[in-house]
């Protein structure tokens, strides 16, 4: 009897993963952990999130819901005894918060792991981390074994690195770590489920300013690829490694110039092309004009620009591909779908990251 516990399904990656699990015949029992004041409202939030990815399969009726915050929830003894696989995707993904990311990502992950450490049937605990857990680096290409630097551009990535360390220190814990790079859109649905991070690339193209040179590559993956990869790793019978990038890698990362050209072919790029220092990007007049000097927009661009200032072009994904996971499509293959799937303004799209 396969019993999966998934956290984070009201979010972008977790919602896509829940939807993917609902279609998987290997799953006998699915338990979702979500924040809510009561079970009914929790179910409702989850249903809304999963519906973003298309009609919800009939099996949804049998899904069990546990409500609570990662840091305080007490898992039922019956669930702990039954659970065979965990996908821990919940995290505070704010690029600006310090306290909340520490609480949810470090303390919250430890609290969940503490409760599952003695789970008698647990075969896999898949921790969804981030490829940027590497911190500030001068590498163009980052491998899974690249050590994490002490300095980070955001507390969020430091918190994920700390959570990884804590989990890795637990002996005989059946841990695997998945590290997605930057998740943008869905390869078939575009940005209908969420425009998370899409708004940033779109704003740069529309303003005609960018912190990347045109020949520099960006590592971007669609959410359906990430969901497939998480399920692939969850059920992988004998993974050869402990950590896996879920990324575009050398093959599917794309040049910024080609991304800009994709926006231009849909009439969404300025004719101007100006490279801008990441530290001054947020206050550039061309960007300010797009968002009418919206303060949240400026802060959002500022946070993203700090990552753009890193020299990383791609995260190696040979490990996952060598074990049989098909590589993701390049962003430019589904960029038009992203553009055409939403008529919202950049500012409205940015709210998906609020
Ligand atoms: N999106 C990316 O580009 C990307 C890239 C690399 C790695 N990742 C990783 O992928 C995972 C999912 O990211 P995402 O983009 O889907 O984020 P998201 O849309 O912000 O969703 C985060 C999820 O975590 C839940 N959560 C946060 N704090 C919680 C807490 N204290 N207790 C219980 N639940 C909590 C949220 O619940 P509420 O709905 O109640 O807030 C939500 O379901 C994260 O681990 C993230 O680090 C994402």
Description:
It is a single chain. The protein is an alpha/beta fold and 354 residues long. The chain folds into two domains: 3-185 and 220-251, 3-Layer(aba) Sandwich (Rossmann fold), CATH 3.40.50.720; 198-219 and 253-312 and 330-353, no CATH class. It has helices spanning 12-22, 39-51, 77-82, 99-116, 155-168, 198-207, 223-235, 249-252, 256-265, 278-281, 285-290, 295-308, 318-322, 331-340, 346-350, and strands at 3-7, 29-34, 64-67, 85-88, 124-128, 141-142, 175-180, 182-183, 209-210, 217-218, 220-221, 243-246, 254-255, 274-275, 314-315. The strands form five sheets. A seven-stranded parallel β-sheet has the order 3-2-1-4-5-7-12, sandwiched between helices. The chain has a two-stranded parallel sheet with strand order 6-15. A two-stranded parallel ribbon has the order 8-11. Strand 4 (85-88), helix 4 (99-116) and strand 5 form a beta-alpha-beta unit. Helix 1 packs across helix 7 (223-235), helix 4 packs parallel to helix 5 (155-168) and helix 6 packs across helix 9. The longest helix has 18 residues, at 99-116. The radius of gyration is 20 Å and the shape is globular. It starts with a strand and ends with a helix. The model has no long low-confidence stretch (mean pLDDT 96). The protein binds NADP nicotinamide-adenine-dinucleotide phosphate.
